[in-house]
Design brief:
Layout (H helix, E strand, L loop, with lengths): L1 H7 L6 E6 L1 H4 L9 E6 L7 H21 L2
Antiparallel strand pairs: 1-2
Length: 70
């Protein structure tokens, strides 16, 4: 995530990434699916579209990195 964040620049809000499913239970195997979510700070913003674009792009970069693992 840090490499992807370097590409995109500073995040527009405070955030955290959480793992779900087998990742959260510590039961991941080499061919497990990867389920994650971004928790973002609840804050009234004027530029919600920019915030959503940032995190959608971040998710796509993470997805591409996982796919490239094989």
């Amino acid at each position: 995530l840090l490499e992807a964040q370097e590409l995109l620049g500073s995040p527009p809000l405070k955030w955290a990434c959480i793992g779900m499913g087998s990742m959260s239970r510590g039961e991941m195997c080499p061919y497990s699916d990867i389920e994650f979510a971004f928790l973002i700070e609840e804050k009234k913003v004027d530029h919600l579209d920019d915030v959503l674009t940032y995190f959608r792009t971040l998710a796509r970069i993470v997805e591409l990195k996982v796919v490239n693992l094989g």
